[in-house]
Structure formats: C-alpha cells, structure tokens
Specification:
The complex is a heterodimer of chains A (208) and B (198). Helix content of chain A is 55%, strand content 11%. Chain A is an alpha+beta fold. Chain A has a 4-stranded antiparallel beta sheet. In chain A, strands 1-2 form a two-stranded antiparallel ribbon. Chain A contains 7 helices and 6 strands, in the order ββαββααααββαα. Chain A folds into 2 domains: 1-41, no CATH class; 44-207, Butyryl-CoA Dehydrogenase, subunit A, domain 3 (Up-down Bundle), CATH 1.20.140. Chain B folds into 2 domains: 1-33, no CATH class; 35-197, Butyryl-CoA Dehydrogenase, subunit A, domain 3. In chain B, the strands form 2 sheets. A 3-stranded antiparallel beta sheet of chain B has the order 4-3-5. Chain B has a two-stranded antiparallel sheet with strand order 1-2. The longest helix of chain B is centred in the middle third of the chain and has 30 residues, at 87-116. Chain B starts with 19 loop residues before the first strand and ends with a helix. Classes of the chains: A alpha+beta (208), B mainly alpha (198). Chains A and B meet through β1, α3, α4, α5 and β5 of A and β3, β4, α2, α3 and α4 of B.
Amino acid sequence: MSEFAATSAIAQGLQGCPICTSVGPAEKTHCDGCGAKLHSGWENSIQQTWAWLITSVMLYIPANFLPITYSRFLGKETESTILGGVVTLWEHGDKPIALVIFVASVLVPLGKIIVLGWMCISVQIGSKFALTQKTKLYRVTEFVGRWSMIDVFVVGILVALIQVGNIMTVRPGVAAVAFAAMVVTTMLAALAFDPRLLWAPVNKDNKQ
Amino acid sequence: MVCHECDLLIGVPGLDVGQKAYCPRCNFLLAANRPHALKMVFVFAICGFGFLLLSTAFPFLGFSASGQERTVTLMQSITILVSEDLPSLAAIIFISIVLIPGAFLLGAIYVSTALKMNRLLPGTVTVLRWVLMLMPWSMAEIFLIGILVSFVKIVTLADVSFGMSFWAYVLFTVCMTVVMLYPDKRQLWNRVRSLSDE
C-alpha cells in the first residue's frame, strides 16, 4: 500500500477534480486542468448541505399532504395525494407498481434527507464510525436521488393523456411542483456535501 | 489521481483495453479502458440526437376511452401543463427530458468529433466540462419508467397506444445510456491535454 502513497489527498494538501480527474493544490476553488468548480469551491459545504436539506424537508411536507392530481370522472372530482395513489394502486392489485412508486416517491426522498443529515452530523462531531460504509452510502444516495422524479413524470403523462372533456379529466396539483422542487433540492444537497470531510478525523490522526 | 469517493491519493497506471481500475480503499471505479470508446460515443451520440429529434415529430402516446380518441406529441404533453397553470412543472419536465439530454448529446458529438479529427475545436475543453457536469441532470431513462407506470395506471380505464415517437424516444434513451457509460474521464482529458500541448 505504501508504494501507492496510500494516504488521503487532503492530508498532503492536494485534491482531485471530479470532472477531469487531475490533481492539484487543495486550496484551489477551481480546477487548473479544466476550470470546473472543485469541492473546496463549495464554501461551507456542511452549511450548504444543511440549507438544501432544510429546504427539502419544507417542500417534502406539501409534496406529500397536498393533492398531486385532481381527477374528474363523469362529473365527480376526486383529489389524490402521493400516498393515496399508492394505496389505490395496491388495492387494484398492481402491487409491484405500487411498491415502485412508494419506494421512489416516499422512501427514497425521506431516506436521502435522513442519510445526508446523519452524515453532516457525523462530520460535525468528528465521528470515525463506519467511514467506508458511510462513503458507500453517500455514493448510493447520490445515485438514486434522480429516480424520485418518476412520479412527476407520471403526473405529466396522465394530465396530457386523460383529457376527454367531462367524461374523464386529470389536472395536476401543487404537490407535483413541490415534489419536483424537492427532488432537485435533495440532489443539490448531495452535490454540496463533500464526502472527503467524513475522512478528516482519520487524516488528522495520520498526520500526528 | 484522487478517488472521487474517499479521497485516496493513488497512482493509477495506464490501462490496456478492457482493463479497469478500482480504488483499494473504497472499491470505487477509478478508470476503465473500454474498447473503441471514442467511436462508440461518436456513433451513439449522433444516433441518439437523431432519435431525439424524431421523438418530437410524431404522435407520442395515444389514448382512447368511450369512443373518444386522443393522441399527443411529446411537446403537447409539456405545453398542456403550461395551460394548466403550472409552467414551473412544465419547465422542469422539459429541461430534464429534452433540453439537457439534447445539449448533452450535441456536446458529446462536438467533443468526439474534435478528438477523432485529432485537433481541438474552439471551446472543446469548456464543452467537455459542461457535458460531464450535465450528466446527472438528464432524466430520459426515468421518464421511460414513468411512462410505464402511467400505462399501468391508465390501462384499466382506457386503451393506451404507443406512437412512433415513443419508440424513437426508447431508442434515444438506449443511445444516451451508451454515451453516458462508455467513455472514461481520465482517458478523455488525457487526449484533450495531449492535443492542446501540441
């Protein structure tokens, strides 16, 4: 391992560029090789992550409790929320699809907010617990976040297709906008978070 | 290079075709030398862009219930949200399924053309940087799953038919996935740098 200089870049005053993979001084905010914004370009990574996370939580509430669609069927209008839609699908026997929607629209955003919050706290208290697993968890979080957009697209398609005058019409609700905005803010929270900070306590020990 | 995930500083040797390099600390894929990477990106980016154009030109989905039929194009399905007083929702959907993927593919065509010609075209570095930054914001494959879910939701109420443009969008998504997965960042930038040194 030692012949590969197996220590963290930050411990040697260096950092890598996520866009072009070149290595440069850690204090640079933009990459010398390609000009991309680097992790150190995000000032106060933890604070920014918290800010996006709090915004996400504030959007998560209306997204889940306000109606995401209004459907009118033979003159009778019904509202449905995200969870209501899942329950309806489940009762109609489309259990796998109900599960997909439940995971993508309810569990993933919530899980993402909790995981990122936990990581921010563990950086702030300098925890050395399960760093490799946490790093992997961050990678998963960063990757699955986009998939929550499924429900937004479903609403878009239903609204576009089901427009048969008074017989059957579907209109979008405000929750759809809140939900889409929440997916974007959780993605930004993941982007603002600097996973290298998780390893900072270990690197400090190595230096001593 | 430095591991994107765990910040391990590590020397990665030049890879032969077909080889991959993983981080010894966190097992993240650091670099990969896939066969014909540049050719694949060039071809699939052009095809993908063509399919994206086609997918906006013809009926996308059809819907029939109680003797009434309705077909919508991809663009109509977005403009209808504007007329439903939710232009912000329309904008988010349009940007993530048409605008960003389109810009991504045009950028990929531009960069791979430059590299194939073995010279830098104006702004190659900037374009390549933007292409790599846009990648996670393109949601074509997620949109397809969304269509599938909607299909299951509607199928008990009415008949849904898939138009020409739908199939074009499916093919576009396949091409898009190849373009996103195939190239290796380090390899691309090494090519760009060696060209700019000349």
